[in-house]
Structure formats: C-alpha cells, structure tokens
Amino acid sequence: MLGVSAHTESPQRMSITLLQPVVSRVREFVAAREGAIGLRLGVKRSGCSGWSYVAEVADSVRAGDSRFEQDGVVVLVDADALPLLDGMQVDLERDGLNSRFVFRNPNVTAECGCGTSFTTDDRHADPASAALK
C-alpha cells in the first residue's frame, strides 16, 4: 500500500492508472470547465455492497488529498479513500453515444448484482472514517 501524507504539494507515484481514453476525456472535462484543475476520485457509502465510486471534476485541492499526475492530468484522491482505490485501473466504456468510467479495482472482494457498489475486506478501510461516509 502506498504511504501518503496529510497534504501533498507535488505529485506522488501514481497508484491509480488512467487508460488513454480516460486521460483524453478528463482533459476535455477540465478544458470545458473554468477553474477546473483535474479529476477527483473517491468512494462513498452507498448501494447494497457498501461502497460506490465517485468521479468528478476537481476545482481545488482539499486538505488530506493525495495528488497524482498522469500524462498531464491531475488526479486527486482523499487519503482515507486511497487504500480502497490503490492499484485501480480506470477505463472508458462506450455504448453508442454514451460513455462511462469503468473501474477495475484489485481491492474489491464482491460487487452488487447491479454493478453500482462494491465491498472490500476490512483491512482496506476504516468504516468509522468521516471522509468515507
């Protein structure tokens, strides 16, 4: 597991991999939104399996963020969520005119039937963490 500090000014070794279609798509999102600085990845308590992914355009670095950079794209991950996402690969799935991020996460031990939430073993997250609720 990658060690992180409370706030990181310079990029760390990337523990999350964005495939090229995602890098291109995130660049489009950032360019289209004034003040955007990159992509924020995280998790929230949700669904029947416990966790769901959060992916959004980031406008600022928050206290506790780990900052990564890949091919010029800034990726921000809350330090509390990083153990759940460490080693994850993000791809883009296209279906006609629609597209969505696909998360390939080695920490997942089970997923719900509808595919919107996942479970990890207990060593990956502190369920009492306020940042992950």
State the gist of this model.
Helix content is 13%, strand content 40%.
Tally of individual helices: 2
The N- to C-terminal Cα distance equals: 22 Å
Range of helix content: 10-25%
* Count of DSSP strands: 9
Which whole number gives the mean pLDDT?
Answer: 83
Helix and strand string, N-terminal first?
Answer: EHEEEEHEEEE
Strand content: 35-45%
The main sheet orders its strands as 3-2-5-4
Structural class: mainly beta
| Oligomeric form | single chain
Biggest β-sheet strands, sense, barrel:
4 strands, mixed
The residue ranges in which pLDDT falls below 50 over 5 or more consecutive positions are 1-8, 127-131
General description of the model:
By secondary structure, this protein is mainly beta. The protein is 13% helix and 40% strand. It has two helices and nine strands. It has a four-stranded mixed beta sheet. A three-stranded mixed beta sheet has the order 1-6-7. The N terminus and C terminus are likely disordered.
